[in-house]
């Protein structure tokens, strides 16, 4: 599997493009905004974008969806149902960050905890990790975990925004993510990557 990371936007969001080398099916994890580098990478590998998988519904992870859907109409956009209301209120939410307007983004369906999503020869497991938002999820693919804004390098996602809850995010990490193998590489929604083992020892928020 090919993995490409793109750091995009004023909040420096990490978007991750996964490409199955055999079938050329691709998955984009989070979609901050339209990005020529992502489009050019899809062309370079002659890949077909099958899914956009959202870790949660905050605006900085979703505002590129409509643009990508226009260019890749067969692509399916999935998010956890717990964040539907958050996404429906994106126009209201962005104003608190000094953004004047934002369109509601098109969603095709909803993921559930422990669901398996297949692309090419790969399987992606959905792990529901509420706390940053009600519908926050992580995506586990082999030895790689895409943690969105749940778990960061020596930190955790903020819980002072609507639907945030520190007790929940602490439980999500300790009871779900820390049960995974220590060697699993964690690719976060912002900042550098880390490992489960490193965070067990060094994360001062837990």
Give me the secondary-structure topology.
Layout: E1 2-8, E2 13-19, E3 25-29, H1 36-44, E4 48-53, H2 65-71, E5 76-80, H3 84-88, H4 90-93, E6 109-111, E7 116-119, E8 122-128, E9 137-141, E10 144-148, E11 151-152, E12 155-156, H5 166-175, E13 185-188, E14 194-195, H6 196-202
Parallel strand pairs: 3-4, 4-5, 5-6, 10-13
Antiparallel strand pairs: 1-2, 2-3, 7-8, 8-9, 9-10, 11-12, 13-14
Summarize the structure.
By secondary structure, this protein is an alpha/beta fold.
Top keywords for this entry?
206 residues, alpha/beta, Metallo-beta-lactamase, Chain A, six-stranded mixed beta sheet, globular
Report what the structure shows.
With 206 residues, the protein is of the alpha/beta class. It has a single domain (2-202), classed as 4-Layer Sandwich (Metallo-beta-lactamase, Chain A), CATH 3.60.15. The chain contains six helices and 14 strands. β3 (25-29), α1 and β4 form a beta-alpha-beta unit. The radius of gyration is 16 Å and the shape is globular. The model has no long low-confidence stretch (mean pLDDT 94).
């Amino acid at each position: 599997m090919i993995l490409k990371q793109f750091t995009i936007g004023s909040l420096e969001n990490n978007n991750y493009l996964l490409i199955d080398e055999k079938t050329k099916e691709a998955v984009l994890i989070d979609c901050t905004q339209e990005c020529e580098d992502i489009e050019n990478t899809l062309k370079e590998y002659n890949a077909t974008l099958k899914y956009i998988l959202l870790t949660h519904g905050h605006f900085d992870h979703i505002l590129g969806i409509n643009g990508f859907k226009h260019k890749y109409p067969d692509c399916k956009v999935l998010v956890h149902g717990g964040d539907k209301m958050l996404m429906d209120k994106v126009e209201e939410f962005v104003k608190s960050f000094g953004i004047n307007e934002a369109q509601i983004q098109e969603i095709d369906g909803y993921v559930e905890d422990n669901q398996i999503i297949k692309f090419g020869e790969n399987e992606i497991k959905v792990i529901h990790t509420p706390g940053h938002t009600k519908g926050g999820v992580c995506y586990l693919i082999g030895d790689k975990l895409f943690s969105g804004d749940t778990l960061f390098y020596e930190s955790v996602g903020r819980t002072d925004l609507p639907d945030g809850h520190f007790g929940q995010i602490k439980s999500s990490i300790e009871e779900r993510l820390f049960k995974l193998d220590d060697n699993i590489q964690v690719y976060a929604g912002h900042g550098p990557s880390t490992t489960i083992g490193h965070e067990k020892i060094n994360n001062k928020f837990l």
